[in-house]
Structure prediction request, 143 residues.
Amino acid sequence: MCNVLGGNIHLSCVRQSLQVLQRNLDNIKDPLFRFFDREISQGAVLLEDVRRDLRDVVAVCKLERKQTNYIRNLISSLSKGILPSSWNRYKVPKSVTVLQWIADFSERIKQLRDISKVANDSPTALPPQGHPRLAGGLFTAEA
Prediction:
């Protein structure tokens, strides 16, 4: 069962980390900055949770860690290609597979990483200019 999960492949598709925005008295007053700050913070938390879950699955498959009910359910979902409910924190179609979700999530994190880099390099540069943005690639695009 574990060898069909491809946990290492999934883990390599999901980026390492996401740098949160640097706050100061001036930029915290900007509603656009606060919006991107929430987006990036939400993305960073979900990214860490996904990476931790995938590391745990790989550790269980290598017999380096004991299974818990949570990990057992996670392995069951992943082996069936179903998006684990603990990862479903933003709107996606019900028919999306876990592979499609990871590809989409990776693109969202890449976009947030670009925004974070631009904003931390030049705090007055929000929204970043010259980079195509996917509005639907935000976690709360309806906001």
Notes: The chain has four helices and no strands. Residues 32 and 127 are 8 Å apart (CA to CA). The longest helix spans residues 31-61. Residues 1-5 have pLDDT under 50 and may be disordered.
